[in-house]
Amino acid sequence: xxxxxxxxxxxxxxxxxxxxxxxxxxxxxxxxxxxxxxxxxxxxxxxxxxxxxxxxxxxxxxxxxxxxxxxxxxxxxxxxxxxxxxxxxxxxxxxxxxxxxxxxxxxxxxxxxxxxxxxxxxxxxxxxxxxxxxxxxxxxxxxxxxxxxxxxxxxxxxxxxxxxxxxxxxxxxxxxxxxxxxxxxxxxxxxxxxxxxxxxxxxxxxxxxxxxxxxxxxxxxxxxxxxxxxxxxxxxxxxxxxxxxxxxxxxxxxxxxxxxxxxxxxxxxxxxxxxxxxxxxxxxxxxxxxxxxxxxxxxxxxxxxxxxxxxxxxxxxxxxxxxxxxxxxxxxxxxxxxxxxxxxxxxxxxxxxx
Length: 354
Prior knowledge:
Layout: H1 3-10, E1 13-15, E2 24-25, E3 35-38, E4 55-58, E5 69-71, H2 75-86, E6 95-96, E7 101-102, E8 107-108, E9 113-114, E10 119-120, E11 125-126, E12 131-132, E13 137-138, E14 143-144, E15 149-150, E16 155-156, E17 161-162, E18 167-168, E19 173-176, E20 181-183, E21 189-191, E22 198-200, E23 205-206, E24 211-213, E25 220-222, E26 227-228, E27 233-234, E28 239-240, E29 245-246, E30 251-252, E31 257-258, E32 263-264, E33 269-270, E34 275-276, E35 281-282, E36 287-288, E37 297-299, E38 304-305, H3 306-317, H4 319-335, H5 347-353
Parallel strand pairs: 2-3, 3-4, 4-5, 6-9, 7-10, 8-11, 9-12, 10-13, 11-14, 12-15, 13-16, 14-17, 15-18, 16-19, 17-22, 18-23, 19-24, 22-25, 23-26, 24-27, 25-28, 26-29, 27-30, 28-31, 29-32, 30-33, 31-34, 32-35, 33-36, 35-37
Antiparallel strand pairs: 1-5, 20-21, 37-38
Helix pairs in contact: 4-5
């Protein structure tokens, strides 16, 4: 594909030779003379002058360089679009594999691909252009929309509903039992039935081995556009708002509520019955056990405002030095005092002076 044609498809303003042939997309340090790359982070701006790429996707105000540039407001998104042009995933033609087990009451839409050893339970509904790869299991009463894509070994439990364009990566579990137990009079834990389904909106991606628990009562709800990373745990009865990102190994305890356009970075945790407002950001490994107002960025465990946390971390790293200085000041003060009863320093101060 000529660079000029690619620029037109991406809606970019081309600066440079549009006749260069483009065969693929690669990172800025690895790209070759027939590949396109991008710069969206200022840290990599200098590499644009030395890259061997045929062209670079940049924002409109990027300085002119010898390499041709494609200028547009969101280079990173354009890079993703270019990947979609040059990388073609496997194609799964419509049809049902002879080893699939499909209940006669199930309704399957047009152009669906049902792979080997798939199990589709009673009274399920599968939309048009759905793809179920080997060993996918849909329990009774499941409803999935158009363009549903379930990778091998993903599972949707009974009564759960998924709207259009939902993708389940390998091993994702939707609707597993919530962690609900109550002690009886003899002190033994008894399982609480988890009667409520999971409801998932459109254009939701659930990555490998993530688990979204069904609710004790009511429903666990995942809104449109949510992206859930590998090994995430969404507790029973939780609600996640539109376009929120939940990154790897993050966890929501039961009945958590997360607003729209929030970001929970890797290994962040939210205690049960907490509410996080729209646009909240929890940085990596943060732990929240209280409600958080919209737009806040929190860090640490227990989490507090990020700007205060940054100062606290800086101070923590200096604690040995601060302790030594404090010890010296105490010694100086003691040496200048009149004679009297011996004053003993605490063990922490002594330890800091060593």
